[in-house]
Amino acid sequence: MIRVLIADHQPIVNYGIRMLFDNSNDIKIVSTVDTAKQLINYLKKGSVDVVLMSMDLPDMNGITILRKIKKNYNNVRIIIFSAQPENIYGASVLRSGASGFLSKTATTNTIKKAILKVYKGGMYVTNAMAQKLTFDKNKEETDIYQKLSTREIEVLKLICNGKKNNEIAEELNINPKTVSTYKSRLMTKLNVTNLISLIDLGRLKN
Length: 206
Known about the structure:
By secondary structure, the chain is α/β, with parallel strands linked by helices. The protein is built from ten helices and five strands; from the N terminus they run E-H-E-H-E-H-E-H-E-H-H-H-H-H-H. A five-stranded parallel sheet has the order 2-1-3-4-5, sandwiched between helices. The longest helix has 14 residues.
C-alpha cells in the first residue's frame, strides 16, 4: 500500500483527493495538511511514501519546501499538484527535487498513474514537459522564462505574492541585499524597468 500525504491549503482539494482514493487497493491517503509546518511535522513520523503538494502553502513557497524535504527526507517522493503554469514552474520544481508535476485539472486516472510511477522511482511529467526537458539546448529559446534560474523564478513568485525584500530574504535564508540583486537581474532578463511591470509579467501566465 502506497502511503500518500496531501499538502494543500484548500480544504475542498484535500477532501476531494481523499475521497477519490477512499476505496483504493493500492493507494492510501494517510492524512492531509494545509501548511508547510504541518507537512514537515508529519514527515518526522516517517510514515509517508509520496507527498502530493501544492506550490502555494500559506507559510512557505513550494520550492523552499521541496529543498527542505529533499535535504532531510530524501526517500519521500514529491509530486507538485498545482494550478500554476507547468511551462513556468515545472522544470524548476523538478530541478529542486520534485518527482513530478501535475495540474489541478488532472483526471483521477492521471493522478493515480503519477503516484504509482514516482513511488517506483520514476518521474511523472506531461508529454509537453518531457519534450521541453529534452529539447535541443542549442536551439534558440522563445520562452523568456527559460532565461531564469530556479532561484530567480523562486524570487519572482514571492515578489508576485506581495512579499517585501526582508520577507523574501527571511523565507529563502538569504541577505536582503541579495534579494535586491535578484530583482535587478530579473528586470534585466525580462526586459522591464520597474517593479510593477515585473509583477505584471510574472503573473502573465498565472
